[in-house]
Amino acid sequence: MRQAQGRGLTTIVPMGTLYLVRHGQASFGADDYDRLSPLGQAQAERLGSYWRERGLRFDAVLCGTLHRHAQTLQGIRQGLPGTPEPLLTPGLNEYDSQALIQAMHPAPLPRPDTPELRRQHFRLLCDALAQWMAGTISPAGMPGWNDFADGVHAALAHVRSRHTGHNVLLVSSGGPIATAVGQVLSTPPEVTIALNMRIRNSAVTEFGISPKRLMLQTFNTLPHLDGPAHAGWVTHA
């Protein structure tokens, strides 16, 4: 809640909350990454059930248009019946990690199916993200960094302008969510990249909503997976 004053009167303006959710575990290393694994589907359903158990309801939903976004939202809705139909928002779609890496390393790379190859994959990705954000590379088939960031900003502006006082669910990927946090906190590119690399599957980040600004309340939390029963459900890719 916040107070707005005018003509000697004080008006209480309710604060809303934007819940940004990264998709459940996808199919890292497979030919088609853009599909939830069985564990990723279970993570999403568990999140919806957790919210149902606590009486949370959403007034609006925004969702990227990738398969893993739709499948994550479907899982949440199975656990939380009555969740509204989403506003499909392409500006919440993830960057193309393969295109980024290929822009830095055109030669074919082995499938990242060992710990060392996975570390190499993410080192290359972080380097490519920094070069993309600096405007040094233009990965094939991708927008420029400024256009990507503008898509995230437009989604946040939509929430801020229309949903003060509401609970809003936003389902996306690590890149757009880290970008959103970076925009709210005015972080430099290297911090935005570091945030991106730390966001876990089905993790929840919360912003307080007011007409003028969004305010970070929590980052990268997994309350629905807390406890021994779900200790093996925490994943990052």
Automatic annotation (TrEMBL):
It comes from the Bacteria. The keyword Hydrolase applies. Pfam families: His_Phos_1. GO terms for molecular function: hydrolase activity. SMART domains: PGAM. Transmembrane segments: none annotated. CDD domains: HP_PGM_like. The keyword Hydrolase applies. Keywords: Hydrolase. PANTHER family: PHOSPHOGLYCERATE MUTASE-RELATED (PTHR20935), SERINE_THREONINE-PROTEIN PHOSPHATASE PGAM5, MITOCHONDRIAL (PTHR20935:SF0). This is Phosphoglycerate mutase. It comes from Alicycliphilus denitrificans (strain DSM 14773 / CIP 107495 / K601). The lineage of its organism: Bacteria, Pseudomonadati, Pseudomonadota, Betaproteobacteria, Burkholderiales.
